[in-house]
Amino acid sequence: MLKHYRLTNKKRFFAFLVLVFAAFYLAGMIISAGAVSDKPQAPKMIRVQKGDTLWEIAQQHCTGDIRDNIYRIRQINQLSSWIIHEGQILLLP
Length: 93
What we know:
Elements: H1 10-35, E1 44-47, H2 54-61, H3 66-76, E2 89-92
Antiparallel strand pairs: 1-2
Helix pairs in contact: 2-3
């Protein structure tokens, strides 16, 4: 038969649970802090294919707002217009 356990000291049990949750919380914070790199990432380079547009490139290769990404792509590559050409190398943020 199964043995039934009875809590004799509820305060001690509650303190134990608080310590366990605190330990898991701190471990998660330490692990997540280590996952974020402080080093800036090198920009990704792509070669423009026939029919590519800045909108499609930003949509496929970048995260976040597409318009912001297009603006950043134009700034990084010093593009004065939206026109890109087949074979052109673009740096992506």
